[in-house]
Amino acid sequence: MDIRKKLHLVSLGCNKNLVDSEVMLGRLRDYEMTDRAEIADVLIVNTCGFIGAAKEESLQTIFSLHSVRKKDSLLVVSGCLTQRYKEELIKELPEVDIFTGVGDYDHIDMLIENRKSQFSNSTYLIDAEDRVITGIIAHAYIKLSEGCNQQCSFCAIPNFKGKLKSREIKSVVNEVKKLIDKGVKDFSFISQDSSSYLRDKNSDDGLCLLIDEIEKINMIKSARILYLYPTTTSNALIEKIVNSQVFHNYFDIPIQHISDSMLKKMRRGAGEKRIKEQLDLMRKAPNSFVRTSFIVGHPDESEEEFLYMLSFLQEFKFDRVNVFAYSDEEGTVAYESQNKISTKIINQRLKKLEKVIEKNTNEMLKESVGKTVKLFIEGENSEHELFLGARKLIWAPEIDGEVLINESEIENLQIGDIVEAKITECVGDKLIATVTRKI
Ligand code: SF4
After folding, report:
1. Which domains are assigned to the chain?
2. In this model, does residue 278 exceed pLDDT 60?
3. Ligand 1, atom nearest to 229 Cα
């Protein structure tokens, strides 16, 4: 019988938070993982503190774990919510045994052993830690940096994650090589602001330099970069990605708005003309995938500025778009505005945008029918056990969609296999495919 202590960990929020959770799992390898909170000796919630809904989810998760935990178990709360609301949470959550923020992921084992809360001053940035890759073993997120130097009016992240702190290229390359040895074939490079990589070390083209080094790694097959920022995404970087043999023409660039006057109010730095120039270059790239996000209802957004964004969305064909309702976050410039938009109007605008996005996304999906594409086998799927789950190799995990395989000319397909397939149908937001050969 396995007498190891049992660990239950819930990782909330973004994929950057997931990497930090994986670092904690790496430090707690002596524990047996369990998805049953009621039998766990240690329960960890790695929280998100970005916007209202995420904060609410973090609190609900803490309370629900507390309500089922066993006697004498330890409840640990880490991450962005605790970093942002340290004093309040320590006062208001007596049920929590250990509080830590975003600076001590690599000390979690010591904090648990000593039953000690700790908030180190600097934000933790992964280096050579031996993290536990969660999810599908053949894919891994690679964190490039922590913190952010941008000053977007609506965002509190720089307040609790601090200034941009980039990893050395050598550290990133070493981690990728280590993970390839462990069977990882597909990589997603992430941070709050990836295109600013190494700008804190006086390099304006850090990502270009990184791409060159990653391309030298043997056996690396597939990679993409998420979270490009308009002001630091140069034409040279776009060209570097387009010419890369390893990095897909995958362009994730949250623009948040398109009207010049709103982009100024949001302190985004780049204006409409520059953003449209970037998007056109990205859209023209062969087999490109362009993803973005918009915020609706930011203070001072006029009906005219909103309609301008709506009409742009009807014109420009994005592959995927996320749209967020403005969340009023204390500590941000927008929070001080005297011209907030009512929830009623925000929801009306949100609905209009979501309608256009759904129509465009379905049209983009339908364009794949009849085409031969590369797929990444993911195994399980949300529909039916008779289908094998996959995603287009260019797509990022979890956020870009699902391809269901109902036929295969290849036997014994494995999770993590990269295959060629013909898209035969589009059913709702799912693509159906037949595998033709293994790559
Ligand atoms: S780029 Fe803007 S939205 Fe993103 S983390 Fe930085 S300040 Fe926040």
Report:
1. 6-114 (3.40.50.12160), 139-366 (3.80.30.20), 372-438 (2.40.50.140)
2. yes
3. 1
